[in-house]
Design brief:
Radius of gyration: 25 Å
Number of strands: 0
Mean pLDDT: 75
Helix content: over 70%
Order of helices and strands: HHHHHHHHHHHHHH
Length: 270
């Protein structure tokens, strides 16, 4: 079972909403995969803390405040200028809904375009399988374009969204894979680098990804990212990473936890 599949099913696993065979498979994966095991423990702890919270009791003034708010709205509506057109009202509401950041604007526009394409496909069925294939290719290209655009944004949160978009791609092109690898190597935020490592796991069968991950491990300076890369190298059984791991063990200033993880990785891959 892959890490991505396990993480998608963790909420159902923790709430005991899975069949016994699925739960057994997840338990086996959590035992073998340190990364997923830590995430499951953290999620379980949050789940228990949420369950311990007392039930919210509505304030007796809630109804009074609601009625006062509705009355103020009715009065304001009656006093509104009659000269405002429906076009101005629509423009006002659209301006409030439309995001201000360029990266989010681009992602929103492409998302709406994708939804429009699918809506058109549902309303007017394609005449042939070639048209359907062409539609899928267009959607795939748009997703890749959104991911690339977000990965280049200055905001770390928007770059994280770009990494998340890669999960919607079954076969990303070389440009997207290179962008994710560059994120692992050069991004200034550790959380973004960790997310990119996790995203690249689903494309680990690509030669460019395997080689790029080895290069990233060689040049990485964050202990958290180093450990994540070592775990991934072991999981995908990348034998070429052994030389890099041995070189890490010889570095005097290397974090002790990373050094121990590198030693473990060498034993697993040898």
């Amino acid at each position: 079972m892959k890490c991505q599949t396990v993480r998608e099913q963790l909420p159902d696993y923790l709430t005991n909403n899975l069949e016994e065979t699925a739960k057994a498979a997840i338990r086996e994966h959590l035992t073998a995969c340190t990364w997923c095991g830590k995430e499951a423990e953290a999620l379980s702890e949050i789940w228990h803390k949420l369950g311990a919270l007392p039930d919210e009791q509505p304030s007796p003034l809630l109804r009074v405040r609601f009625e006062a708010m509705m009355e103020a709205y009715r009065v304001g509506s009656r006093q509104a200028r009659p000269g405002i057109s429906w076009a101005e009202t629509l423009h006002h509401w659209w301006g409030r809904l439309w995001p201000e950041r360029p990266g989010l604007q681009f992602a929103t526009a492409v998302t709406l375009l994708i939804l429009g394409l699918f809506a058109g496909h549902l309303l007017v069925p394609p005449r042939s399988s070639d048209e359907l294939s062409e539609l899928r290719n267009e959607v795939r290209s748009m997703r890749q374009l959104v991911a690339l655009s977000l990965l280049k944004q200055e905001s770390a949160s928007e770059r994280l969204k770009g990494v998340d978009w890669s999960y919607q791609m079954q076969r990303p092109n070389k440009e997207v894979l290179t962008a994710l690898l560059n994120t692992v190597k050069y991004d200034s935020t550790v959380n973004v680098r960790l997310a990119a490592v996790d995203a690249l796991h689903q494309f680990a069968d690509e030669p460019i990804v395997r080689q790029g991950l080895i290069e990233a491990l060689r040049m990485q300076d964050s202990p958290l990212v180093q450990i994540a890369l070592i775990d991934l190298m072991v999981e995908i059984r990348e034998q070429r990473a052994v030389d890099v791991l041995k070189r890490l063990q010889r570095e005097r200033e290397l974090n002790e936890a990373v050094k121990q993880r590198a030693e473990w990785g060498v034993k697993q891959l040898s």
